[in-house]
Amino acid sequence: MARSVAEIKKTMTDAFMADATIREKYGLSAEDTFSNKFSSVSVENILFFIVAACCHVLEVLFDQYKADVEEKISMAVVASVPWYYKMALAFQYGDSLVLDEQTQQYRYASIDESKKIVKYVAVRDKGTSVHILVSTDEGGYPKPLSDDVLTVFKQYMNRVKVAGVILSITSKQSDHVIIIAKIYIDPLVLNEEGKRISDGSKPVEDAIRNHLKGIVYGGTFNKTKLVDAIQAVNGVEDVELMECRYKAEGAQSYTVMSGNNYTGNSGSYIPDDLKNGLEYVVQN
């Protein structure tokens, strides 16, 4: 925001009066102020006023230029991955879009948070197309959109997207993961069923569920991070991860994960059969 002429002038006169060389040439003391030592018609005062007025005009011009640029930016569609992410979350089920004549973009006439049913979004740039994964929420976990809602969502995204861009939109059940591991335990804390002796809970299973739930929607399952999550449990002394398998929606059987990472088709992961997949061993 542009400063006033008086503000700019004061900044300059304060610096002028603080300069040791100036004080020596004018015979000024440390207690002297500019207004006390220089009259309103003095050459110094007039020069400072002229410079301050010029600076004020320049700052006003810069403010107007900034406002003009920001207005142009707000009217432009920047079709980046974050933009598609934002537009997906803005979807309001059951509401029609209106064309904003000023920006030439489609938008909702009013914002209704209760109609925003898309809670999880992942956008992947495929080069020749944009892949968008979406889910709603049920009990704190991703849940795929029903077929009728997904159809409406696709119509919405095709309406707001940049012309010429190909969208691939999916909403699927979470990928199922089987974890086979040997957990070496402290027998003073955990028993050989994986239960905490003090309260009967199963902290390793809880840690695995929380870890998978905590993976960012659309993110990658990483074996190393899974082992770290298990080892962080009180009573776990070591972890030997034997094998991980996954099954995406529509698959008839599980597939063994090759490598250290797996990026699911659905964007989220849930564990299967932890009771039989985890073996608890007291280390000798």
Describe the model:
This protein has nine helices and 13 strands. The protein is an alpha/beta fold and 284 residues long. Strands 7, 9, 10, 12 and 13 form a five-stranded mixed β-sheet that branches. Strands 3, 4, 5 and 6 form a four-stranded mixed β-sheet that branches. Helix 1 (5-18) crosses helix 4 (43-75) and helix 7 (203-214) runs antiparallel to helix 8 (223-231). The longest helix is centred in the N-terminal third of the chain and has 33 residues, at 43-75.
Pick out its properties.
elongated; 9 helices; 284 residues; five-stranded mixed β-sheet; 25% strand
Q: Rg, please?
A: 32 Å
Element pattern in H and E: HHHHHEEEEEHEEHEHEEEEHE
User: Spans of 5+ residues with little confidence (pLDDT < 50)?
Assistant: none
Q: What's the total count of β strands?
A: 13
Largest sheet: 5 strands, mixed
Alpha-carbon distance between the two ends? 71 Å
Provide a concise account of the structure shown.
This protein is of the alpha/beta class and 284 residues long.
Break the fold down into its secondary structure elements and pairings.
Blueprint: H1 5-18, H2 20-26, H3 34-37, H4 43-75, H5 81-89, E1 97-100, E2 105-108, E3 120-125, E4 130-138, E5 141-143, H6 147-160, E6 167-170, E7 175-185, H7 203-214, E8 220-222, H8 223-231, E9 236-247, E10 255-256, E11 261-263, E12 269-272, H9 274-277, E13 278-282
